[in-house]
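Morning F.,

Quick status update on the modeling queue. The single chain you submitted on Monday has been processed. Sequence for confirmation:
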Amino acid sequence: MPLSLAGLEAHPGRYIGPQLVSLTLEAVLTGIVINQSLTFWERAERERNVVRALVSFVTLMAFFQSSLRFYAAWRLFVEDFGNWIESVLFIWADKIQSTTTVLMAAPVQGFLIWRCWTLFNRSYFVLMSLSTLLLAQCIASVLVTVQTFQIHFGVVPEAEVEAGPLPKVQISPTFVLSLSCSAVLDVLVTGILLAFLARSKQQIVSSRFRRILRRLTVMIWEAALPPCICAVLTVLMYLTLVNVDYWDLTFQAILGKLYVISLFVTLNGRADLQDAPVPGFSTNRLSNLGWSVNTPIRVDIPTDMEQGPISTRNTQGDDSSAVDTPTGPSRSAVNSGKTE
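C-alpha cells below.
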C-alpha cells in the first residue's frame, strides 16, 4: 500500500509491528515443527518411503522459510535500524512468501487428497475435483509471486502527498483466489474424512471402537482447523485492511507452517493409536482412517466351556490381533460370518 513518511512515523505499529509478531510466531512454530519432526523420525521405519520423502521436503521448506524470516528481520532491526524508508521496502525474501507457503501446503494437501481418494473406493470424481482446487491454488500462488516482483513498495514522496490523497491499492483477485482455494480444499477434505468416520460409527456397537473413532475425529479437527482458519483470516484481513496496515501479512507468514504441523499431527497421532492398541482391535489399518470390516471372522469355541476364553481371529491372517472374550454358561455357539 502507498505510504507517506509522516504516516509511517506516526503509526509504526501498523507496519513494523506485524513483522515483529510474524518473527515471534514463526520462531514458536519452528520449535513445534522440530519437536514433531523428532517424534516422527523415532518411528519413521514403519512409514512408506513416499511419506518419509514428503515429511523431509515440507520440513526443509519450513526451515528455509524460517531462515528467510530471520534474514528479513535482521535487515529490518539491525542493518537498517532507524531507517523508516527501508523498513517498509519488501526484499526478495518477502516477495516469495506466496511460493514458499504453497510449497509447504500443497504436498500436505496432496497427501490428504490421496487419503480421501482411497477411502472413497478410488473415486476419480473426488480425485479430479480436489486436485483441480489444488492445481488452481498452486498456479495462483506462483502468479502472485510474479506480480509482487513487479510492484514497487516504498514511501510516497511528500510532493505527491501534498498534491492529494494517496491512491488506493487494488484488490488482487489472484491472491484472493490462491487463499480461497486453500480454504475450500481444507473444508472439503475435512468434511470427507469426517463423513467417512460418521458412516463407520453407525456400524460400530463396541464402546472401545467408538472411543477410537472419537479420537480420530478429534485428531482430524486438530489437524484441519488451524490452517483453514488462518487462510480465511488472511483473506478477510487482506480485503479489509490492505489500505490500512500490514497485519494481513502476519497470517500469511504462518500459514505454511500450520500445514506442516497438521501433517505431523496426523502422522504422529496415527502412530500413537498404533502403539496403544485396544484389545480385539488392530490399529495398523488406521493409515486410511478406517479398517477392514468385510473380511470373514472365525470364532473358535472350545468344547469345554470351562477351559478358557474364546479366541477370535481374522481368517485372512493379517495383522489383526486376537481377542480374549470371557465365556459363560449362557454363551451360544457363533458361526463364521461376514461383517458388513
